[in-house]
Specification:
The complex is a heterodimer.
Chain A lengths: L1 E6 H14 L2 E7 L2 E6 L25 E8 L2 E4 L6 E6 L1 H16 L4 H8 L1 E6 L24 E6 L2 E6 L2 H4 L12 H16 L9 H10 L5 H5 L8 H4 L7 E7 L5 E8 L9 E4 L2 E4 L4 H15 L1 H4 L9 H5 L7 H9 L2
Parallel strand pairs in A: 2-6, 6-7, 7-8
Antiparallel strand pairs in A: 1-9, 2-3, 4-5, 4-11, 8-9, 10-11, 12-13
Helix pairs in contact in A: 6-9
Chain B lengths: L3 E7 L5 H7 L3 H6 L3 E6 L11 E7 L7 H10 L1 E7 L1 H5 L11 H9 L24 E3 L6 H12 L12 H7 L24 H4 L16 H10 L5 H6 L2 H4 L7
Parallel strand pairs in B: 1-2, 1-3, 3-4, 4-5
The chains are: A alpha+beta, B alpha/beta.
Chain lengths: ~350, ~250
């Protein structure tokens, strides 16, 4: 790892050079929230963002993505990964991306995901402002922030820049990176530690304790109680950086000779997610709100831990913030069960 | 390939969905390469008494005397598609279902209210009178969804996928700032999706014009409309009456 300093003034030049080179996707303001969008100008860049509506995985798996088109009996795969730079990713989202990298190859190598992922250079940045529901400082401590190519931490007068990979190295000619002092390195480490400590919300137990106890509560009536106000809208799933389920549909074009197969992000909180066809009819294997509500928490706290090395939750707080009924917050559910 | 014979019929409605169709432009003209309209009041003067492959019905079933006409359409159609909010759920016409018949008749027709040709009833979806094979909801319909459903039908797909999840999910997919995060209210949590959530994207709360999802959590909606949307208790209770009169728990 190499470490540099980039002054506030030089950041603008660096980003402007990157934009000239390839599409740069970074946090920009959208009314009261933020989203990862393609940067047109460095002036739109908001490294002071709290969190984005959707996690950056949308760059690797678009929310709706054509997989195959067919015409006159011939088909074509819709793979067109273009080089791009994902700029300003918070540490919790970087953790989630490394989980996604693994998920999209462990049983089936998802060529659509990985071709986009491979073509992307990821530049992380520290959390300057906390999302009102963030709890990343107290969850998924087992997983390291890794898989990115460069990381920027805001310190006095500029940024401490860590270069972690060859892809990151390749960007060095685009900016005026200078030497850092030991003090600046220490300051940056403090900034990141404080970001973890200052999360507005906290889990009180270790992932292992939570994993075991939540599983023990599988048959508890807590799920029914907690999910009373659930709309089954699936918003908590869609905004989650570690949810990865999708639905596939085939669709004819107007001409009866062509069409396409596409996939769309799916959500296990919705009723139709668990509907399957059974001998000509259909069956729903999680028909009750409470079952679907429980399933999400189980997936986030218990079911995937052995596979991922930690819980499939990075504490971004998006699910909690997006839920209009205010019942999706994992911290309040987990802490309540842990206190029982 | 022989062209599919299609016809449009209207009942209690503003015929806005038919107008919407004539607004389609190119995709609709392209569709005409596959279908042959045999009756379409807003766009042609010819009528038919022959067998129809696909009948599109707009408008709600709000007079008992319409039953015969609906049954007759059903009888000579292979496939019946209800389209637009009125045909699918009773739509905005069903607002009257919440009032006393005598009151609204007097308000609308005054002294003539008891004349026999003004007889009326609760506004019901077309499916209350006849079997409907496919439904394309919305006020007005979404042209992309209409084309998608009709394209699949014309190509002989018997199962046409339409979403059953709520509008919230579509807002998230397009990263629309939630109306509630913008200090507003919304009914996207219980409204049937499929439209692509254009209203909240334009800063307008969802009014559930496509109707409710199955098992809408009405109690939670009322609570959220009050606590987060700032509506009064009475208004929160009434809020979803506009398009979902036939789907609410008090229907």
């Amino acid at each position: 790892m190499k470490t540099f300093f980039l002054s506030d003034g030089d950041l603008d030049e660096f980003v402007t050079n990157l934009i000239a080179k390839s599409p740069v996707f970074a946090p920009v303001a959208k009314k009261t929230r933020f989203v990862f969008n393609q940067l047109e100008s460095v002036e739109d860049l908001r490294l002071d963002y709290d969190t984005t509506i959707l996690p950056p995985k949308k760059l690797f798996v678009p929310t709706k993505q054509d997989l195959v088109t067919f015409e006159h009996g011939k088909y074509e795969e819709c793979l067109a990964p273009g080089k791009k730079i994902l700029f300003g990713v918070h540490p919790y989202d970087i953790k989630a991306i490394s989980m996604m990298d693994w998920i999209h190859e462990e049983s089936n190598f998802d060529i659509y995901y990985h071709s986009n992922r491979k073509a992307t250079t990821i530049i992380g940045s520290n959390v300057q402002n906390h999302y009102k529901k963030a709890f990343f400082g107290s969850v998924c401590k087992e997983l390291k922030v890794m898989g990115h190519d460069m990381f920027l931490t805001k310190i006095a007068d500029g940024y401490l820049v860590e270069v972690l990979t060859k892809k990151g190295d390749d960007l060095l000619p685009d900016g005026n990176f200078t030497d850092v002092s030991k003090e600046q390195i220490k300051n940056a480490a403090d900034v990141n530690t404080k970001a973890d400590e200052n999360c507005p919300s906290k889990l009180k137990n270790t992932s292992l304790e939570i994993k075991h106890k939540i599983r023990m509560y599988y048959d508890s009536d807590v799920w029914k109680k907690k999910s009373e106000n659930c709309f089954s809208c699936g918003s908590c799933n869609i905004v989650c950086p570690t949810c990865y389920c999708f639905d596939i549909q085939d669709e004819w074009a107007l001409e009866p000779t062509s069409g396409k197969r596409y996939r769309r992000w799916d959500a296990c909180l919705t009723c139709e997610f668990s509907e399957v066809s059974v001998q000509g009819g259909s069956e729903n294997f999680r028909e009750e709100r409470a079952e679907r509500f429980r399933h999400r928490i189980m997936r986030k706290t218990s079911f995937l831990n052995d596979k991922l090395g930690g819980p499939a939750c990075v504490g971004c707080g998006r699910c909690s913030g997006t839920c209009t009924a205010d019942i999706a917050d994992p911290v309040s559910i987990i802490n309540e069960i842990m206190e029982k | 390939m022989a062209k599919v014979k299609v016809a449009w019929f209207d009942f209690c409605c503003c015929e806005g969905c038919q107008i919407e169709m004539t607004n389609f432009g190119e995709p609709f003209l392209k569709l005409l390469e596959l279908v042959e309209p045999v009756e379409f009041r807003e766009a042609m003067s010819e009528k038919t008494t022959e067998r129809i492959n696909v009948s599109f019905i707009e408008g709600s079933f709000s007079r008992e005397e319409d039953r015969v006409r609906l049954e007759e359409i059903r009888e000579r159609s292979d496939v019946v598609v209800a389209y637009g909010a009125c045909a699918v759920t009773g739509g905005i016409n069903a607002l009257k279902n919440h009032f006393e018949m005598d009151d609204y008749k007097e308000a609308v027709y005054g002294a003539d209210k008891d004349m026999p040709h003004l007889d009326t009833q609760d506004a019901k979806p077309v499916s209350a009178a006849i079997k409907v094979d496919y439904a394309i909801p919305g006020c007005p319909i979404d042209k992309d969804e209409f084309l998608r459903v009709v394209t699949q039908l014309v190509h002989g797909t018997s199962k046409v996928y339409v979403p059953t999840y709520p509008v919230c999910l579509e807002c998230k997919l397009r990263e629309t700032v939630c109306r509630y995060d913008d200090g507003d209210h919304c009914m996207g949590q219980v409204a049937l999706a499929g439209c692509g959530a254009p209203c909240p994207a334009d800063g307008i709360p969802c009014e559930a014009c496509r109707g409710f999802v199955e098992n809408p959590n009405e109690k939670a909606l009322e609570q959220v409309l009050q606590e987060r949307g700032g509506l009064s208790a009475a208004w929160a209770k009434k809020k979803s009456q506009m398009f979902t009169a036939n789907l609410r728990g008090d229907a």
